[in-house]
Design goal:
The chain is α/β, with parallel strands linked by helices. It is 32% helix and 20% strand. It has a nine-stranded mixed sheet with strand order 5-4-1-8-9-10-11-12-13, with helices on both faces. It has a four-stranded mixed sheet with strand order 3-2-6-7. Helix 1 packs across helix 8, helix 8 packs antiparallel against helix 9 and helix 9 crosses helix 10.
């Protein structure tokens, strides 16, 4: 039972409550957040990404070690400093980001780093779009996704669009290249344009052979869309679906949010996804044919609780819950 997360890890400077223009440094970065969430869910977790040889990079490495995340690039780089993200929270706790990353150490992940990984040792490989915004990391993560798929592993991806890093068009262009390799896709309601809108999700999934798409909607919960491609005739293709008369069913599971006081939404989506993926692994999912609606309902519940606990605390990784906390909430 194992999940490997590939991409960026950085420092989130998050506001200190009650102190104007005062920030505290917290470890963050979406793939790293998911890796820590997976480890706290008591699932074997690994992180493949570059860290800077500076005080912040050392803090990030120590954070991974303390959370029992396997570090696949343990050597810190002197070629760039650790990326910094400054978080702004609005009155409802929703966050926006400003990045210092020209370049950041995370962008230096290389194909050679990926080639050193034995993907047969991991059940799910997860990545996100921020890694596609610069080189050489873009090519490295693309190679990781392809190699995971070739090894018969489940590939997970979070669109995780950040407009302060790059444009929508550039992000979509790079994400579209990876869609043929993705089995499990996470998007937020702010990213619906990437799939052509919510009504277009089933068609988007068919076109790209995506088995599970999870749409997170903040206080409105989430929707899990599922297509059982293993039940579809091998002669089917998205281009001939209208001609052959085969009706593809896309099921939707609506998962309500938990009502909790919101302090900080930083990392909530990653806590959700870490809980979701960990639940799939815990339920024995290793390939798309292992997935069914009951399994997805359970995973959705675990993800929702994980994200819900996260937003009651400040600051990304420090707020990500353990499996014990999630389990207690589910029982309650």
């Amino acid at each position: 039972m194992s999940i490997l997360c590939v991409g960026e890890m950085l420092i989130d400077f998050t506001p200190v409550a009650g102190m104007k223009n005062t920030y505290t440094a917290n470890p963050g970065g979406a793939p790293a957040n998911v890796a820590v969430s997976v480890a706290r869910n008591e699932i074997r977790s690994g992180f493949l990404g570059k860290l800077g040889n500076d005080d912040f990079g050392k803090l990030l490495k120590k954070t991974l070690e303390e959370n029992n995340v396997e570090i696949l690039c343990p050597e810190l780089t002197d070629e760039a400093t650790t990326t910094l993200a400054f978080v702004t929270l609005d009155e409802s706790g929703d966050r926006s980001f400003t990045f210092a990353r020209k370049p950041g150490a995370d962008l230096l992940l290389s194909k050679d780093d990926v080639k050193a990984v034995d993907f047969s040792q991991w059940d799910i490989v997860h990545a996100g779009s921020v890694s596609q915004s610069g080189l050489p990391e873009r090519n490295a993560v693309s190679l990781a996704v392809r190699r995971a798929k070739e090894a018969g592993k489940l590939v997970s991806f979070d669109i995780n669009y950040r407009d302060k890093i790059w444009s929508f068009d550039d992000c979509k262009y790079e994400v579209d290249k990876l869609l043929p390799y993705i089995d499990l896709l996470k998007i937020s309601d702010e990213e619906l344009d990437f799939v052509g809108g919510e009504k277009n999700i089933p068609e988007f999934m068919v076109k790209n052979d995506i088995s599970v798409l999870v749409l997170t909607k903040g206080k409105d919960g989430s929707s899990i869309f599922y297509i059982d491609f293993d039940s579809i005739p091998s002669t089917f293709t998205a281009t001939n679906s209208a001609d052959n008369g085969y009706d593809i069913k896309c099921s939707e599971i609506k998962v309500p949010s938990v009502k909790v006081p919101v302090k900080d939404t930083t990392g909530a989506g990653d806590a959700f996804w870490g809980g979701f993926l960990s639940s799939l692994i815990r339920q024995g999912v290793k390939k798309t044919s292992d997935i069914n609606l009951d399994i997805l309902r359970i995973a959705g519940g675990c993800g929702t609780i994980s994200g819900g606990i996260c937003i009651t605390k400040p600051g990304g990784i420090p707020a990500i819950p353990t499996w014990k906390e999630i389990e207690q909430a589910l029982e309650g």
